[in-house]
Amino acid sequence: MSAFLGSIHHWLFNKVLIFEDLEAQLVEDLQKEFAEDIASIYAEVKQKYGHPFEKGVDLEKAIQHDNIHGWLQQRIEIAETRQAEFIAKVTATFDKKAKNVLLSTHKSHGERIGKKAKEKEEPKNAEELYQSLNNNILDGMPCDQVNNIVDVREEYLRWDVVSCLHRGYWESVGADIELFYSLRSAWVGAFIASANEKFEYKMQLKENKIINEITKE
């Protein structure tokens, strides 16, 4: 990644902001269900990890220009760990009812971001949908290269993940990684269906890898 602030850094930072927008939606929806208990839990988590960025934040002013790569990596780690711990605390307190809200919010947020992608990018085939997804979902740094595309056609694309970047964040705070996969699958599925209603998404956890497929219905 370049040592000078460029389009790739704005692209990556925007994915952090989308991820934090999901976090804000989770807090809002959970508060509707569980009221002030959620505010207390979230305040505790924010005190530990820091607050999300304010809307309209200027990356030029926020970033450390002498440590661009390290600063972005740190922001990803903070955002992922804060959200993982928040979810862990909420599910430990409210269990299944909280999980239902989490799942519903991931679907609705993925749908909303997918609709925006449809308006902006108009993805027409499986490869364009994959590229659009990658423009919107937080999945580490570009240099991590954990997604291995194994099959790409007009109506089908498969990529495998052999090293999950998110597991470490979740397990470090005692969060259930299986819940992460369920929530992420729900988000991606809603995103793909909203970005192009002719396609669908499937995830399989198989042995030591995660198989992801975008296919035409």
Plain-language structure description:
It is built from seven helices and four strands. It has 217 residues and is of the alpha+beta class. The radius of gyration is 17 Å and the shape is globular. The protein starts with 6 loop residues before the first helix and ends with a strand.
Annotation keywords:
217 residues; alpha+beta; globular
Tell me the number of structural domains.
1
Strand order of the largest sheet: 1-2-4-3
Largest beta-sheet characterization: 4 strands, antiparallel
Secondary-structure element order, as H and E? Answer: HHHHHEEHHEE
Distance between the termini: 37 Å
Question: What is the gist of this entry?
Answer:
The chain has 217 residues and is an alpha+beta fold. A four-stranded antiparallel sheet has the order 1-2-4-3.
